[in-house]
Design a protein that fits this description.
With 207 residues, the chain is mainly alpha-helical. 67% of the residues lie in helices and 4% in strands.
Length: 207
């Protein structure tokens, strides 16, 4: 995603060269001070613009965070798609998507910083957050297929399932080092404790 574009609930808006300068300045500040401690004044100074100019392009600091975050997530999604076979069943597809996204995201220092920042992490898990709206769109077709095939437990709300998966991805990123690089152990944990509780037949993994 080019820095001259920003995603707002799935739409693209042009922020121009000045907006891009603000984003670049914000990145430097986030890397130096952390997201939570960075102020709009810090960003304006780093970008070489006034505080009011920042607000002409972004509603606030979290709007800039969202802009950067979506750009990084887009990169990760492309890499994840390349690792997953499209003909997998719901359980296998979901397991592999989570494992792949965690492994790919772990190598992205900006996503790791997002996950470790309490302010960003908490906001991203709100049902109304752009991150959750994007996640629901991303998982929509998978959830519909799982409902149609009867794999997803009937008492589950797909939106709540997506929220559950998203929260677990964040948690796994935080504790990934505890798996010691053992991808199979990570896959087993995801399958057994995250995915199987969502299935109609919880005792028999899908093929």
């Amino acid at each position: 995603m080019d820095v001259s574009e920003s995603r707002q609930d799935g739409a693209i808006r042009d922020i121009g060269k000045t907006g891009a300068k603000i984003v670049d300045g914000a990145r430097r500040c986030f890397e130096r001070y952390g997201i939570e401690k960075t102020t709009i004044e810090d960003i304006a100074k780093a970008a070489g613009v006034s505080r009011p100019t920042v607000y002409k392009f972004f509603a606030g600091k979290m709007d800039i965070v969202d802009h950067i975050g979506f750009g990084e997530l887009d990169k990760i999604q492309e890499l994840v798609r390349a690792r997953i076979k499209p003909d997998l069943g719901f359980a296998d597809m979901t397991t592999e998507a989570i494992v792949a996204s965690v492994l790919v995201a772990s190598g992205n220092p900006y996503i790791r910083r997002f996950v470790e920042d309490l302010e960003v992490s908490a906001q991203s898990q709100l049902p109304t957050s752009p991150y959750q709206q994007q996640a629901r769109r991303r998982w929509e077709s998978v959830m519909k297929r799982a409902q149609a095939s009867g794999e997803l437990a009937a008492d589950l709300d797909p939106a709540e399932v997506v929220s559950w998966l998203s929260r677990n991805q964040v948690m796994l990123l935080r504790v990934l080092d505890q798996f010691g690089g053992d991808e199979e152990k990570l896959r087993h944990m995801v399958r057994r404790f995250v995915v199987e509780p969502l299935l109609v037949n919880r005792s028999t993994p899908s093929s």
